[in-house]
Structures are given as structure tokens and as C-alpha cells.
Amino acid sequence: MFEFNEVILWLELWLKNNPEWIAIGLFGTAFIESFALIGIVIPGVVLIGTISAMASSTLNVYELVLIAYAASFLADILSFLLGKGISNSIDNYWPFYKYPNLLVQGRSFVKRFGILGIFIGKFIGPIRPLLPLTAGSLGMNFKYFVIVEIFSSLLWAVIYTVPYYYAGKSVLDNQFNTAWLIPIIIGIVVLLFIVRYFKRKYIEE
Description:
By secondary structure, this protein is mainly alpha-helical. It has nine helices and no strands. Helix 2 runs parallel beside helix 5, helix 6 (100-121) packs across helix 7 (131-137) and helix 6 packs across helix 9. The longest helix is centred in the C-terminal third of the chain and has 32 residues, at 142-173. It is globular. The chain starts with a helix and ends with a helix. The mean pLDDT is 80.
């Protein structure tokens, strides 16, 4: 029987033995995690963290963030354009025809919070892959969407890769430096409070 966890473990082992593919693995995983439909059924967050830790032996932190940023940004833009292209028949595509509530949730969130919801939703796991697609299907202004994505994708890339990168680097260097960790933790805590507020408002209303 197919087990997704086994595939992840195999991929982690393969990348460990073939470090020259880590950059491509990171790009692919970040893209899959963010892209419409695929990101719904294939959670890549754990794998992104693992690859980021491995990357400390082959990439510098700027290359790491740039790769994850580019992949996430590209996935969201393509998802938006896909949603715009199939806006009249999106209900007929899997998984929406089988799980219509997914589309209802995504549209409800976008209509309620607008462009700000696109930014915040980037950090809410269950709806992250839905928002660019639904925003496109609802006819959101593409220019505004791109502007928000420039910043949200960058912040997403930093939060989801940098802590793991430096954790892996600390293991390799056999020392743990907290100087880089403090500002990241503060930023994550602030972001979590904002996301929590939006989730509560979204659920309660």
C-alpha cells in the first residue's frame, strides 16, 4: 500500500546522499507546497524544513531563501492565473467537485478579507494553497495580488527555511548561536498572533 511518509523518508535519504540536488529538491517542494490543488493533498512543510537543514552544507542562507521564495512566488502566480482561466468551470475540477466546501472556504475568506487576507492566508496552512486560485477565479486585481505576493512569499520563505537552516548549520559546526534565532522567534510570535486573530474572526463570523 502506498504510504506518503515512506516517500518523504526515501526522498530525504536520497537528497542526503546526493547533496547536489538539494537546491532542486527545495525548489520543487516549496512549489508543490504552494501550488493550487497539489498543495492541498501533498503537505510539504515538514520536507521543506528537512531540506533546509540539509542545505546548510551546500547553500548559503541567501541562496536558500531565494530558491524557496522564487518557487513559492511562481506557484502562487500560476495558481492565480489558473483560477482566472477556469473561473467559469472551477466547480467541475477535482477536488472541488468532490469537496465543494474547500472552494466555499477559499472564496469566503477572500471576499471577507480581500487583499489583506491573501497576505495573512499565506501563513494559514489549511487554506494557503486555495487562496491564489480562488482569488483568480473571483477576478481580484492581478497587480495588487502580485504586490502582496512579493512580500508574503518572501516572509514565508524566511520563516519556513531559515530556522531549519541554522539548526542544521549548528549541528554541522558543533555549536549553537542564538543571535540569529531571537529576531526570528519574535517575528514568528507576532505573525502567529495576527494569524490567530484572522482565524478566529474567520471561524466566528
